[in-house]
Specification:
The protein is an alpha+beta fold. The chain contains 9 helices and 41 strands. The strands form 8 sheets. Strands 21, 22, 23, 24, 25, 26 and 27 form a 7-stranded antiparallel beta sheet that branches.
């Protein structure tokens, strides 16, 4: 610290410093306040006001009053006007219900809201505004339009012309505006101060010291006064034309060029729309904006084709065209803006050409789809017959020591029985015919009576049995080189046998591959992703299959589904998928998530679209079902379901018409639907749920079946040549 001994002569600069310090400490704190910002806490409030002090804010006041908003706004305007605040409206903001006020260099915004749940009450908010570009308002002026940032002022002064001129001569100088002369305007090469206004006067001013905040250098302004027939005076103050930009920058909105700078801009449509348009309030004179569009039209190869008829508010209207569009440019003046209206419409000839191209593409798409479906159907028929030839048609015997409520055939494999739910499923190497005969012969002596069914084909049979108020529904279907039997119903409900927790193989014996201990041993190592799979699956899988749904002309599939079985604990498989899917950019979603010891269901958002992962336990392994959907591909192919609904697409590969009845609606499916004679087969939008449907086709027995559809799913029901219906999930 610097010290001075008593008796030492203090230099003059130290006496000056001490005096300055005294002056600073003796000044009141309020002297440091910003006199351009009003203290809103000192403003008057309406009668009955109850101020909200729950969140104190030095720059905002909010209070409630027991009147509706319309009454409150009118009363606040009257009260603040009586306190010296002059209300005004900002340019292009005429419909705003909030109020703006000016008092000298200070500004104020007042907003109103309805009381929460109380339409008979209002909330009022005061917020200070800074008047960056201050110009004087004549006393008693009406129709005040003011922008405090440029500035712009338009109003009607109640005084006669000479009195209004004297007012502005005095008041402009009082707040720092200097009248421009040829000498002081020399820095503006294009300045012309000699313009004559009929029945009025024009003067130019600059503000050498900048705006009141020193935030930016104020541009020169132009004051225009004109006499009115009623003895009053029109007043306008705006930025001088010679201070405005003449070479405007280009921006783009809705596929159309727009100039910068602008106060506001709005657009509708885009470059791909049949019609698109923009409206702009440009901060430039009309000649500069027109020059901008001459330049931009030429740069885009658009041709100007003369004037268009003027609409109200237009000063200029120009027609233009491009190889694909025609349009109109409209320019007019409002306040100190050049208002731009630009619209473009695709030519009728182009629309017709686009429609034809789309129809040709759709026709080719459906033709390719028909050919592909026929090819797939034919190949599937050949494969099914070849696989059926390997199945045994020999009569079956009952499997000994079975603990199921109904007998099992001697060659039953991969048996799954749930006595609590009443479900039974197994595979067999016998034919559908042999298995159907086995159950009809085995259940009849036990008192079960079969109900007639229309589905009794070589590759599929449905049987319904009933006894003593109980029922069993059984579906026998060829699935590749095996036949799957799936049964459920109250006749299968019983206490299911549960394996002992500590079961061990007999001494000297070898454990079964389905033993949990073996599964645990198989999953001892970390799970690794199979690099050859399009969807993630562990290398350690014991089985896997990948199905895709796509149509010709669409490269990306609408839907991909992975089925796999992995000899590992469910928790290990779940951890594998969470790691792999996150690495691929998939995001897990909480919607519909379910995780238990033997079951997992998780929804994901993948880069292509929504996805679902389901894990379960079967035969000591973890089953995997992973589905990924591609909404962009589905939308492009016009198979995207409506929100909250499912879509059915009907087709008919036969040579006879078919009638499909579902949800109390009967739909004719013409022969060859989906082919050239009928480019698009019938479609049906349905709420999610389980539906029974029936099919009738001349010369074929009627067929009944059930389909369950979920919201967001798209299914195809394809009628085959022999009247069978093949359901295919497309999305």
């Amino acid at each position: 610290m610097l010290t001075v001994r008593r008796g030492t002569n203090v230099p003059a600069r130290w006496r000056l410093f001490a005096y300055g310090l005294f002056v600073l400490t003796s000044c009141p704190v309020t002297a440091l306040a910003d006199d351009g910002i009003v203290d809103v806490h000192t403003l008057p409030k309406l009668q009955g006001a109850m101020e909200d002090t729950s969140r104190p804010d030095p720059d905002r006041v909010q209070y409630g009053v027991p009147t509706v908003v319309a009454v409150t706004a009118a009363a606040a305007k009257k009260m603040l006007s009586a306190d010296g605040w002059v209300p005004y409206v900002r340019p292009l903001d005429e419909t705003n219900t909030n109020l703006a006020f000016k008092k000298g260099r200070q500004g104020l915004s007042v907003s109103f809201t309805q009381g929460l749940g109380r339409p008979d009450q209002s909330a009022v908010s005061y917020t200070p505004d800074r008047i960056y570009s201050n110009v004087p308002f004549p006393d008693g002026a009406i129709d005040l339009i003011f922008d405090e940032t440029r500035p712009y002022l338009g109003c009607i002064a109640p005084a006669a012309f000479d009195a209004t001129l004297n007012f502005y001569t005095k008041e402009m100088a009082a707040i720092g505006w200097r009248k421009l002369t040829p000498e002081t305007a020399a820095s503006w090469p294009n300045a012309d101060l000699t313009a004559i206004v009929p029945n009025g006067l024009r003067a130019y001013y600059d503000h050498p010291d900048g705006d009141s905040t020193q935030f930016y250098k104020q541009k020169p302004v132009m004051l225009t006064l004109t006499r009115r027939d009623d003895g009053r005076t029109n007043v306008e103050i705006r930025i001088a034309p010679f201070a405005l930009p003449t070479n405007l920058e280009a921006d783009e909105m809705s596929g159309l060029p727009i100039p910068k700078p602008h106060k506001s801009a709005a657009g509708r449509g885009d470059a791909r729309s049949n019609r698109h348009e923009v409206t702009v309030a440009a901060l430039a004179d009309l000649p500069a904006v027109l020059a901008f569009y001459h330049r931009e039209f030429a740069a885009r190869g658009w041709t100007e084709e003369g004037n268009a008829p003027l609409a109200p508010g237009d000063d200029v209207a120009v027609k233009f065209s491009s190889p694909e569009e025609t349009g109109v440019l409209r320019l007019g003046r409002k306040y100190d803006f050049t208002m731009v209206g630009l619209s473009a419409q695709v030519k009728d000839s182009v629309l017709a050409a686009r429609a034809k191209a789309k129809k040709d593409a759709d026709d080719k798409f459906t033709s390719d789809a028909e050919a592909m479906i026929k090819q797939v159907t034919a190949a599937d028929e050949v494969r099914r017959k070849a696989q059926a030839a390997t199945l045994s048609d020999s009569p079956l015997s009952v499997l000994a020591n079975s603990n199921t409520p109904v007998p099992l055939p001697e060659n039953a494999q991969e048996v799954k029985f749930d006595g609590d739910e009443g479900r039974l499923e197994f595979n067999s190497t016998s034919t559908v015919k042999a298995l159907a005969a086995f159950y009809r012969a085995a259940l009849k002596p036990a008192g079960w009576k079969e109900q007639p069914s229309v589905i009794n084909q070589p590759n599929m049979a449905v049987m319904e049995f009933a006894k003593g108020g109980k029922s069993i529904s059984m579906t026998v279907m060829q699935m590749g080189p095996q036949v799957n039997v799936n049964a459920d119903g109250s006749g299968l409900v019983m206490a299911a046998a549960k394996p002992a927790a500590s079961a061990k193989p007999a001494s000297g014996g070898k454990p079964s591959s389905s033993d949990p201990a073996v599964a645990s041993a198989k999953s001892a190592g970390p799970l690794e992703a199979d690099p050859e799979s399009a969807l993630p699956v562990p290398k350690q899988h014991s089985s896997t299959s990948l199905g895709t749904a796509k149509l010709p002309g669409i490269e990306a599939p609408f839907r991909r589904e992975l089925e796999a079985s992995v000899p590992a604990e469910l928790s290990d498989v779940l951890a594998f998928y969470r790691t792999e899917l996150t690495r691929l950019g998939w995001q897990e979603k909480p919607d519909g998530a379910a995780i238990s010891a033997d079951r997992v269901q998780l929804a994901f958002a993948s880069p292509l679209g929504p996805a679902m992962l389901k894990l379960g336990r079967a035969n000591g392994e973890t089953s995997v079902n992973l589905v990924q959907k591609n909404p962009d591909a589905a939308t492009k192919a016009d198979i995207m379901p409506k929100p909250g609904q499912a879509k059915l697409m009907l087709g008919n590969m036969g040579d006879k018409d078919a009638q499909l009845t579902i949800n109390k609606q009967t739909i004719k499916v013409a022969a060859g639907a989906g082919g050239p004679q009928s480019p698009k087969g019938p479609t049906l939008d349905l709420p999610p749920g389980k539906y029974q449907y029936s099919l009738k086709m001349a010369g074929q027995p009627g067929r009944n079946a059930t389909i369950e559809i979920a919201a967001g799913d798209a299914w195809g029901l394809m009628v085959g040549p022999t009247g069978e219906v093949l359901p295919l999930q497309m999305y």
